[in-house]
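Hypothesis: this fold can be encoded by more than one sequence.
Test: take the structure tokens below, design a sequence, compare later.
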């Protein structure tokens, strides 16, 4: 059986080594890195079963780093370890995309149980596919199909399409989409319109555009639910 690979991102090297040694006892393959850039490179290689982010306050990154990995992958389970026990920090972590959070110092058996649970859940929920009319999005494989034809989208086009699909039948304002995809001030409405136009063109069936991405005049976009 192939070994389970856990990526451990720790902003405190000594803390990271201690956690790595704990996990090695259970036979996991552990990759320890101390920078978000290096961690993302491993995620891109698609060899990671679980990401653990060990955050020590006042070090070189904080809870905001969780969102960077959730933007990259909707399926990767993320467990956050932190020495902050306030409600605000927990809300930030979960809103950023963490699947679970454990406050340090923690019970060793609880830590291992939470890892087991995340690995089990990710296996059970693996291969989530979104369908709406002729459109199909395999979130796990980052594969977009229209009428059984594969569609090649840029990374930003894919993110916009996924955002619309995950908010089916909801109107998303221009500002909301821009902030989610680029961050505040990262794009303007005209630039967003170009991206959406490209998505529509790539989702054409023959000469007919994909009819479920609707423009809400002067407001934003909505993916209409197929009847």
């Amino acid at each position: 059986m192939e070994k389970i690979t856990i990526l451990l991102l720790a902003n405190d090297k000594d803390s990271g080594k201690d956690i790595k040694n704990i996990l090695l006892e259970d036979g996991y393959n552990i990759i320890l890195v101390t920078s978000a850039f290096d961690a993302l490179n491993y995620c891109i290689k698609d060899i990671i079963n679980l990401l653990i982010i060990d955050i020590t306050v006042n070090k070189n990154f904080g809870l905001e780093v969780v969102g960077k990995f959730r933007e990259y992958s909707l399926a990767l389970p993320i467990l956050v370890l932190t020495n902050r026990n306030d409600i605000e920090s927990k809300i930030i972590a979960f809103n950023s995309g963490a699947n679970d959070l454990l406050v340090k110092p923690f019970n060793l058996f609880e830590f291992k149980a939470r890892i087991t649970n995340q690995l089990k859940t990710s296996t059970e929920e693996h291969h989530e596919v979104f369908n709406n009319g002729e459109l199909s999005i395999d979130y796990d494989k980052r594969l977009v199909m229209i009428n059984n034809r594969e569609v090649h989208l840029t990374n930003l086009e894919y993110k916009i399409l996924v955002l619309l699909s995950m908010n089916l039948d909801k109107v998303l304002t221009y500002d909301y989409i821009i902030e989610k995809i680029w961050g505040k001030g990262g794009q303007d409405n005209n630039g967003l319109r170009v991206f959406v136009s490209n998505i529509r063109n790539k989702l054409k069936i023959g000469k007919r555009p994909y009819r479920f991405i609707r423009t809400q005049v002067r407001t934003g976009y909505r993916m209409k639910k197929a009847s």
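The longest strand covers residues 5-10. The CA atoms of residues 112 and 213 lie 44 Å apart.
Hypothesis status: open.
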